[in-house]
Amino acid sequence: MAKQYETVIGLEVHVELATKTKIFCGCSTAFGGRPNTHTCPVCTGMPGSLPVLNKQVVEYAVAVGLATNCTITQYCKFDRKNYFYPDNPQNYQISQLYLPICRNGSVEIEVAGEDGNTYTKPVRIHEIHMEEDAGKLVHDDWEDCTLVDYNRSGVPLIEIVSEPDMRSAEEVIAYLEKLRLLIQYLGASDCKLQEGSMRADVNLSVREVGAEKFGTRTEMKNLNSFKAIARAIQGERERQIDLLEAGKEVIQETRRWDDNKEYSYAMRSKEDAQDYRYFPDPDLVPVYISDEWLESIRSKQPEFRTEKMKRYKEEYDIPEYDIDIITGSKHLADIFEASVALGSQPKKVSNWLMVETMRLLKEKEMEPEDIRFSPEHLSRLIALVDGKVINSSVAKEVFQVMFEEDVDPEQYVEEKGLKTVNDEGALRKVVEEVIAANPQSVEDYHNGKEKAIGFLVGQTMKAMKGKADPASVNQMLKELL
């Protein structure tokens, strides 16, 4: 009988924190920027420069620790991790080994099982530590050389290290989604995988079902989308099983995933002997988080998704499906709440978000976090439809422009002359012309064919260039017929 294998997965997730400045200096953390323009003697590792810790980094790290049920290390310090690599200007990285800021946490994940039922399970978090990011190597194939950009060097990171509690790609994605949402709700990071502000390294091993001992693990890097992570897990699982089936050994190493080729290849062997010669950083004083400071961070924790979902159900009376989608993005939830606060009906706001917004996001391959239109403008658009100033098809047209350029809908409707014609005399004149021009449809209607009126409504709307209220047109046609 064929052997059954189980996959065992643990993750190291790096998250760039949303501070305005770097962890140990005043340089900007903005993404983009010309190479080596967001730099200074501290983050380029010049001799004699001294680091000064950014307080906001500690507050974000503690907030994430509290949200993931960790114990906060109230007396913690920084260590130097020594390694020599061109993107690491000091030849060491300031990190935390001995006293990481958060320990022993866990998050609950929800996963759809193979039987179609959803199950929940906890994923334990071993620790979360603060550290600085390295620079970025840019390989120039044309000149056959490698250039270094130090803009990212010194950008604050937290590294969230899980226990090996996940058993499938589905569980890994559920865990990452959960972390991403918690961190976005906290405002601690935008967690954009494509920009590298959230990165996951996957530690994976396989073992026979029922075995006590873990197999030899490999670590996979270079994963910048959930799809790539899922493919890499599947690919690496199959590679390790093939080796074991052939009686060969899995080598403990770091592998790089190539998403185009859907294959991973070895980067370097990762023996436990790799010695980073950690020692406490002599330039930084230990961090002491007092009870008062801890409480003040705890008191600022936001309403997370689970509580939001419950409140939406009680307060807004919108369908659960809508609630699920809207709370799945902090930005979407903010737009929804702000629009309702401005006086729009919750169901109408949710309809615009669920239908038109989702359609345009999909069409333009955008994330909800990239939405640019303001709640004020959405509210005004809804008010224009409610007040019959424009009809629903014109509203969709205006929304499309609003989605792209965040225009003020009132101004736009005024400038483009899109208001519904509410002049009864003008409408009656057009309806009479349409009736005169379509004797066949009039006859069909009199013979009991209800559908015929739909055609006449369409012809009237066309003649009015869409600027009539379909309900009024329908009513007038019935009167005149």
UniProtKB/TrEMBL annotation:
Identify the enzyme class.
Answer: ligase
* Alphabetical list of InterPro entries matching this protein: Asn/Gln-tRNA_amidoTrfase_suB/E, Asn/Gln-tRNA_Trfase_suB/E_cat, Asn/Gln_amidotransferase, Asn/Gln_tRNA_amidoTrase-B-like, GatB, GatB_C_1, GatB_Yqey_C_2, Gln-tRNA_amidoTrfase_suB_CS
- One example of a Gene Ontology biological process annotation: glutaminyl-tRNAGln biosynthesis via transamidation
Q: Does the keyword Ligase apply?
A: yes
Q: Which reaction does it catalyse?
A: L-glutamyl-tRNA(Gln) + L-glutamine + ATP + H2O = L-glutaminyl-tRNA(Gln) + L-glutamate + ADP + phosphate + H(+); L-aspartyl-tRNA(Asn) + L-glutamine + ATP + H2O = L-asparaginyl-tRNA(Asn) + L-glutamate + ADP + phosphate + 2 H(+)
KW Acetylation (keyword) present? no
Q: Where is the Asn/Gln amidotransferase domain?
A: 334-481
Q: Which PROSITE patterns match?
A: GATB
Which domain of life does the protein's organism represent?
Bacteria
According to its UniProt record, the EC number is: 6.3.5.-
Provide a Gene Ontology MF annotation, just one.
glutaminyl-tRNA synthase (glutamine-hydrolyzing) activity
Query: Any idea which UniProt keywords this protein has?
Result: ATP-binding, Ligase, Nucleotide-binding, Protein biosynthesis, Transferase
Q: What does this protein do?
A: Allows the formation of correctly charged Asn-tRNA(Asn) or Gln-tRNA(Gln) through the transamidation of misacylated Asp-tRNA(Asn) or Glu-tRNA(Gln) in organisms which lack either or both of asparaginyl-tRNA or glutaminyl-tRNA synthetases. The reaction takes place in the presence of glutamine and ATP through an activated phospho-Asp-tRNA(Asn) or phospho-Glu-tRNA(Gln).
Q: Mind telling me which NCBIfam families this protein's record contains?
A: gatB, PRK05477.1-2, PRK05477.1-4
Q: Which family does it belong to?
A: Belongs to the GatB/GatE family. GatB subfamily.
PANTHER family in UniProt? GLUTAMYL-TRNA GLN AMIDOTRANSFERASE SUBUNIT B MITOCHONDRIAL AND PROKARYOTIC PET112-RELATED (PTHR11659), GLUTAMYL-TRNA(GLN) AMIDOTRANSFERASE SUBUNIT B, MITOCHONDRIAL (PTHR11659:SF0)
Q: How does it assemble?
A: Heterotrimer of A, B and C subunits.
Under what name is this protein listed?
A: Aspartyl/glutamyl-tRNA(Asn/Gln) amidotransferase subunit B
**Source organism of the structure:** Simiaoa sunii
Q: Gene for this protein?
A: gatB
